[in-house]
């Protein structure tokens, strides 16, 4: 509970100025109590965020430097209406600030601390005007309560999103972000000093598979944040040493929640509100920019879902090419459904996006032919994929050809170019290829 202006006995070591402030504060409190007890008529109306408050000047100017300046600087000595149109938090924040000025008790919580801190800054409720003023009270609550737990810090950060730019001015958002990153890295097993020195994909894959279980306790909390704030939290975590490969589960959870509602598994683009479409496009492009660079950090199925959404939302070409390259690097782990990307057009083109799959396969083959490691990490030594990986890709492409060969709009040149991309060493038998050709010829 907030207990504004509790009277204290000054010690002899307290400076004279501090004693005067305490005496003045006590006098103000007694004056406020007297105003209420005598039911003195109000002498000022404050308009904040569309709401009107009928109050008294003295309790307000005794705590708020901003209101004191407005009242003292007014040309009209009988100023009776005061407008605060830009007050952070609006009428709800001003009501609590006014209660504080009048000495009325109320509870500070994680639900109101963000707007209270910003409103206090706006109203200049500092120690210059009263001992234990609202700025110092809110700062104490932030340091001692709100920012000491993950849920509290995330809640304050989320509520601060609507208090820009004041929340940035008082460094509330940056403090929340730093607290969140610190708490996650302190508690997580995935934040270790230095770089994980391993070239073993099996070990790396095992670490990534355990990441979801480890981050479950905080991943859901972060999904309430706006995408630009979420990005700042992720960057802060990495700066504190959080392993980037372990970000997969939280990025997946955030993407699935934010991109919900997109019908990316059907043919043709359906109408969507332009503003909503733009927001989802920004979310998707940001998520792709944050994806871990390590191989196997994300499943091929998830990458396929992102790629479908990227094509559907018409993101930047760079975003789509990045996803195509990532899928190509892990093509050996893909299944048929991952490649059956619908063609989101009504131009009478093929049912499935054949060109995209062709580029994915080209990325895979280029990495194989060039002898480069199928990874984004330049520090790792080259390890060629096992023969079984190439054979899986061959079988996958034969199944893909058989699936799309029933499409009457698939041209002969496209069919042949896809078939020719399948390397001979990937074909254990020719049965799959003959089956695809047979279906195509019948159609």
Automatic annotation (TrEMBL):
PROSITE patterns recorded: BTB, NPH3
Stretches assigned to the BTB domain: 42-110
Organism domain of life: Eukaryota
Alphabetically ordered keywords of this record: Phosphoprotein, Ubl conjugation pathway
Protein's GO biological process: protein ubiquitination
Keyword Nucleotidyltransferase: no
InterPro entries referenced in this protein's UniProt entry, alphabetically: BTB/POZ_dom, NPH3/RPT2-like, NPH3_dom, SKP1/BTB/POZ_sf
UniProt cross-references to SUPFAM superfamilies, sorted A to Z: POZ domain
Span of domain NPH3: 216-443
Record has Cell inner membrane as a keyword: no
Involved pathway(s): Protein modification; protein ubiquitination
Family: Belongs to the NPH3 family.
Name this polypeptide is given: BTB domain-containing protein
């Amino acid at each position: 509970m907030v207990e504004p202006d509790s009277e204290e006995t000054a010690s002899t070591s307290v400076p004279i100025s501090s004693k005067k402030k305490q005496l003045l504060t006590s006098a103000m409190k007694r004056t406020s109590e007297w105003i209420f007890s005598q039911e003195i008529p109000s002498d000022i109306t404050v308009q904040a965020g569309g709401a009107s408050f009928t109050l008294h000047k003295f309790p307000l100017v005794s705590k708020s430097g901003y209101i004191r300046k407005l009242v003292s600087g007014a040309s009209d000595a009988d100023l009776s209406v005061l407008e605060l149109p830009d007050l952070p938090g609006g009428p709800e924040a001003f009501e609590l600030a006014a209660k504080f000025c009048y000495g009325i008790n109320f509870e500070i919580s994680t639900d109101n601390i963000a707007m209270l801190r910003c409103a206090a800054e706006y109203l200049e409720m500092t120690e210059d005007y009263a001992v234990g003023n609202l700025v110092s009270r809110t700062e104490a609550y932030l340091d001692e309560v709100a920012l000491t737990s993950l849920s509290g810090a995330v809640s304050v950060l989320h509520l601060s999103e609507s208090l820009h730019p004041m929340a940035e001015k008082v460094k509330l958002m940056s403090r929340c972000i730093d607290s969140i990153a610190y708490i996650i890295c302190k508690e997580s097993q995935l934040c270790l000093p230095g770089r994980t020195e391993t070239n073993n994909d099996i070990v790396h894959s095992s670490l990534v598979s355990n990441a979801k279980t480890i981050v479950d306790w905080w991943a859901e909390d972060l999904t309430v944040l706006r995408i630009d704030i979420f990005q700042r939290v992720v960057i802060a975590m990495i700066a504190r040493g959080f392993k980037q490969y372990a970000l997969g589960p939280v990025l997946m959870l955030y993407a699935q929640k934010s991109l919900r509602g997109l019908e990316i598994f059907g043919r043709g683009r359906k109408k969507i509100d332009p503003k909503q479409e733009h927001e989802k496009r920004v979310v998707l492009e940001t998520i792709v920019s944050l994806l871990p660079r390590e191989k196997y950090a994300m499943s091929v199925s998830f990458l396929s879902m992102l790629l479908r959404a990227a094509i559907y939302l018409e993101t930047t070409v760079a975003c789509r090419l990045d996803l195509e390259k990532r899928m190509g690097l892990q093509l050996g782990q893909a299944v048929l459904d991952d490649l059956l990307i619908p063609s989101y057009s009504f131009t009478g083109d093929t049912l499935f996006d054949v060109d995209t799959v062709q580029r994915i396969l080209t990325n895979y083959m280029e990495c194989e032919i060039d002898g480069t490691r199928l990874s984004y990490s330049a520090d790792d030594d080259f390890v060629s994929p096992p023969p079984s990986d190439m054979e899986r890709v061959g079988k996958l492409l034969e199944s893909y050809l058989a699936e799309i060969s029933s499409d009457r709009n698939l041209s002969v040149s496209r069919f042949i170019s896809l078939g020719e991309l399948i390397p001979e060493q990937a074909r254990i038998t020719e049965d799959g290829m003959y089956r695809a050709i047979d279906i195509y010829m019948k159609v």
